[in-house]
Amino acid sequence: MSQWSQVQQLEIKFLEQVDQFYDDNFPMEIRHLLAQWIEGQDWEAAANNEAMAMILLQNLIIQVDDQLDRVSQEKNLLLIHNLKRVRKLLQGKYHGNPMHIAVIISNCLREERRILAAASMPVQGPLEKSLQNSVVSERQRNVEHKVSAIKNSAQMTDQDVKYLEDLQEEFDFRYKTIQSLEQNDKNSTLIKQEMLALQSMLNSLDYKRKEVLSKIGRVIHEIDMLMSNMLTEELLDWKRRQQIACIGGPLHGGLDQLQNCFTLLAESLFQVRRQLEKLDELLTRLTYDGDPIPVQRPQLLEKVNFLLYNLFRNSFIVERQPCMPTHPQRPMVLKTLIQFTVKLRLLIKLPELNYQIRVKATIDKNVSTVSNRRFVLCGTHVKAMNMDESANGSLSVEFRHLQPKEMKTSSGSKGNEGPHMVTEELHSISFETQVCLYGLTINLETSSLPVVMISNVSQLPNAWASIIWYNLSTNDPQNLSFFNNPPAATLSQLLEVLSWQFSSYVGRGLNSEQLNMLAEKLMGQQVSYNDYQLSWAKFCKEHLPGKSFTFWVWLEAILDLIKKHILPLWIDGYVMGFVSKEKERILLKDKTPGTFLLRFSESNLGGITFTWVDQLENGDVTFHSVEPYNKGRLAALPFADILRDYKVIMADNVPENPLKYLYPDIPKDKAFGKHYSSQPNEASKPSDGGGKGYVPSVFIPVSKILNDSTEPHSPSDLLPMSPSVYAVLREHLSPTAIETAVS
């Protein structure tokens, strides 16, 4: 079943989540019509490879054209209209930046996988629940409502200023008219009445000036309160959601809404600033004793400038954290001399700023004591922000060709690179720019989340563990000394993040039973782990009891095994994986003989084994487990084929496959049939390789179990069989059975 088919079967509350991240950037109708094709492409790789992204974009347009031809024949007018619109969108928005559509589709597929994983969980995890807090959603709506109200108030004040200007012009005209009269004329009764009218008009001007200044003050106060409270919280929440998304959590939306709020507030502040300038202009033409403008205007202008400075500073953010194109699911881990990408965005989107802001990238700016390793950035480290490269027209800049290079110390060598020293050192990529607008000059700075620098890809697993631990444990964006004394983490939250590693990296998260097994492995036989605090050392530095590796190294090896060798089986949910030997026997003991399950080895890194239940002649139940298959052996023969062709020789009996039903009762071929590399009638025949004088060889996984043995035995290595063994098999197996095992 395709991923999209699974999505369509979700409950309505999960479908609503899916609906949130499909918009005009990537319409849902294209996801629906091209589901199989879209899922068959490597969008993650294309998101960091422009040439590959361009090819996929062109192929996507071809697929849309094919669908357009089909619906044209069916005369489906609505679908024809939508597909033409989508085709125009793809060509117009993404032709100059094909990697952007690859990023969008990759994120959508990843978010679908996360939602599917969440739907399979009986309860929502604590971290995800906190991110979807109803209080947060209500605050978002309140912010948008208040920003809109502020914008309206500023526009209404514009009308008041215009009325004040008209009133003053009338006063000025009438006053100058009287001043131009002869002295004798000024003593007339009519003129005295006019002077009384002017005094009344001046009183109205004074009242109106005070009223306008009061309204401007209220608008400024409302902006100040909104920025100090709800908008700041909203921005901090977005940054926290970004942290969680970087370690596999839900995608962080809401940035476009924040941009809209920041932009409207900036426009309102500049509008208020123009109103104050207009008042200053009116002041030069008319002032009087008790005039409120010279008293209040300087204070109000100073407050407006202060708010603009703060608004611009907060609006300069890292939209996409540093990430190597070679490891798109391991952001913030950077390898020396390998390019990485990072994207900056200014949430204040004003046309006047397009191509006017040049951003400079540096590394470890103002940092001198955290690490004894020093780096510089090679490549293009100064670029201009613009609205043309982003599909949504945001004011942003993406650095795509930066490379970190480690500097030698004064002694001529590089810094300490112990196994944990390097991966626990945190560094910072900083960005600075200057905004010059309407007479204001504002210096802006921001930084990435802490990154880990590695010099060898073997350091990547532990480096990624550091990134997980940091972003799980703190929302401080710049605590570079974090690992001097790393805090403990709540086990329930850590387990949720571990499930995200599986949903984001290998397409299927962990269920509660699998997480319980991991919890027991981390903390032993505890009754409850909701409030259990786990130390950093126990997670990543201390070896598991009786083992030569840590918990994290063991788990990372399993992720690598799934990704490279058993991914389809894992996604289908046929690999139980995380189950102890004791638990597997409890599960199998009452099952039909030949029932088996698949689990990851606890003693071998990156190993998978299967255990089946059998029944002896006296009725006793026995269990057999094979030696774990590692990636070296799985590279020689697909795991599904191993399950299909596996044979057991009991003493001198005929070899037979003991694997009948996948736990609990799924026929083996029904579960794995579609994953077999070939069907029996399509397999290569032994004679195909024997035509040149060689004895034909086949790969068949075989175990031999002795009658008097109570211990499970291991399968023979998957090496070519000798002629004598092959001859024995031909005596006991049909040609079809042998053909199914041909390599």
TrEMBL record:
It comes from Sylvia borin. It holds the Pfam family SH2. The keyword Nucleus applies. GO terms for cellular component: cytoplasm; nucleoplasm. PROSITE patterns: SH2. Keywords: Acetylation, Activator, ADP-ribosylation, Coiled coil, Cytoplasm, DNA-binding, Isopeptide bond, Methylation, Nucleus, Phosphoprotein, SH2 domain, Transcription, Transcription regulation, Ubl conjugation. Residues 570-672 form the SH2 domain. It is found in: Cytoplasm; Nucleus. InterPro entries: p53-like_TF_DNA-bd_sf, SH2, SH2_dom_sf, STAT, STAT4_CC, STAT4_DBD, STAT4_SH2, STAT_linker. It comes from the Eukaryota. Belongs to the transcription factor STAT family. One of its GO terms (biological process) is cell surface receptor signaling pathway via JAK-STAT. This is Signal transducer and activator of transcription. GO terms for molecular function: DNA binding; DNA-binding transcription factor activity, RNA polymerase II-specific.
